[in-house]
Amino acid sequence: MAVEFYHNFLSEYFVTENSITVSKALNCEQAFNAIIDSNTVHPIDWAFLDYSLPAFDDQNLYSGSDVAQLVRKYHPNCKIVMITGHTGQAIQN
């Protein structure tokens, strides 16, 4: 649900600006493929990454933090926004 929110928001907000392409990945494997594929087509300017992305063991990507490092390697000028959907209970004294 959060992925759809960001996708819709960015697509609608920038519709009057320069045309943009919004890609989405639901796990580290999809993110890996999007990063590698876009490297030869167009640069990634912004990356919104959830820390809790499901892992891609084959490429040693275990979280959004690992994906951020991959983004930085292939797209050094990309601005990265790290988000998380942490739902832990607050500690009460």
Describe this protein's structure.
With 93 residues, the protein is α+β, with helices and mostly antiparallel strands. The protein has one domain. The chain is built from three helices and two strands, in the order ααβαβ. The protein has a two-stranded parallel sheet with strand order 1-2. Strand 1, helix 3 and strand 2 form a beta-alpha-beta unit. The longest helix is centred in the middle third of the chain and has 14 residues, at 28-41. The model has no long low-confidence stretch (mean pLDDT 82).
The secondary-structure class comes to alpha+beta
Tell me the Rg in angstroms.
Answer: 15 Å
Report low-confidence residues grouped into runs of 5 or more: none
The tally of domains stands at 1
What is the number of E strands?
2
Largest sheet strand order: 1-2
- The proportion of residues in beta strands is 5-15%
- The average pLDDT value, as a whole number, equals 82
Main sheet attributes: strand count, strand direction, barrel closure = 2 strands, parallel
Shape: globular
The N- to C-terminal Cα distance equals: 33 Å
**H/E series:** HHEHE
Q: Estimate percent helicity.
A: 25-40%
- Discrete helix count: 3
Question: Which secondary structure elements does this structure contain, and how are they paired or packed?
Answer:
Layout: H1 2-13, H2 28-41, E1 46-50, H3 64-74, E2 79-83
Parallel strand pairs: 1-2
Helix pairs in contact: 2-3
